[in-house]
Write a structure and sequence with these properties.
The complex is a heterodimer. By secondary structure, chain A is mostly beta strands. Chain A has no helices and 11 strands. In chain A, strands 2, 4, 5, 9, 10 and 11 form a 6-stranded mixed sheet that branches. The N and C termini of chain A lie far apart (about 40 Å). By secondary structure, chain B is mostly beta strands. Chain B starts with a strand and ends with a strand. The chains are: A mainly beta, B mainly beta.
């Protein structure tokens, strides 16, 4: 079945550094969603990308959908402690969302 | 507050037992999804219901079953529990049956098997 590979599994950054997580698929995706799960919390919907090459911004977060619609990325500029959590991508396939394994953002003390 | 209500918040039971987890979706949402999340792991999709009918099935064990009632609330039944079933179980809801719509998650039920 379709899989969505998400990397890296963990990323440790100093506060103020940038963070990027990537999702890749071997097949063309019709859309991709991004969610954030804070420690001890539940996933919260961030954004959905639909169009080839689409770029969307939410303050310090930039979301991209690849031209071939096989990959997507989430970039956070100048991380803050409030960004800590696990970021998941999820893509549509046959009436369900296929979830990436998530990237855990850890801010070094 | 996502508007999705899950009960109970915590459940502690023993191997071999059976439990029922309950979910009330956001007002107006017709789809309910169930997920399992083991410690520090990703989300494992179990099953989706749309307006009372099963719509999609993921990696749900035969010991697990679910249903969605006419009032749209849903229950996930877990039987013959094993230690490995200890996990956080999330329910999510969305407006329609389309997987392109955002899912709104409840706070989860933490199940501990002793």
């Amino acid at each position: 079945g379709q899989q969505v590979m998400q990397i890296p599994q963990y990323q440790h950054v100093q506060e103020g550094e940038d963070f990027t997580t990537y999702c890749n698929s071997s097949t063309t995706l019709s859309n991709i969603q991004w969610y954030k799960q804070r420690p001890g919390g539940h996933p919260v919907f961030l954004i959905q990308l639909v169009k080839s090459g689409e770029v969307k911004k939410q303050k310090r977060l930039t979301f991209q959908f690849g031209e071939a619609k096989k990959n997507s990325s989430l970039h956070i500029t100048a991380t803050q402690t409030t960004d800590v959590g696990t970021y998941f991508c999820a893509a549509r396939s046959n009436y369900q969302l296929i979830w990436g394994a998530g990237t855990k953002l850890i801010i070094k003390p | 507050d996502s508007g999705v209500t899950q009960t109970p918040k915590h459940l502690i039971t023993a191997t071999g037992q059976r439990v029922t987890l309950r979910c009330s979706p956001r007002s107006g949402d017709l789809s309910v999804y169930w997920y399992q999340q083991s410690l520090d792991q990703g989300l494992q999709f179990l099953i989706q219901y749309y307006n009372g009918e099963e719509r999609a099935k993921g990696n749900i064990l035969e010991r697990f079953s679910a249903q969605q009632f006419p009032d749209l609330h849903s229950e996930l039944n877990l039987s013959s529990l094993e230690l490995g079933d200890s996990a956080l179980y999330f329910c999510a809801s969305s407006q329609g049956g389309l997987e392109t719509q955002p899912q709104h998650f409840g706070d989860g039920t933490r199940l501990s098997i002793l």
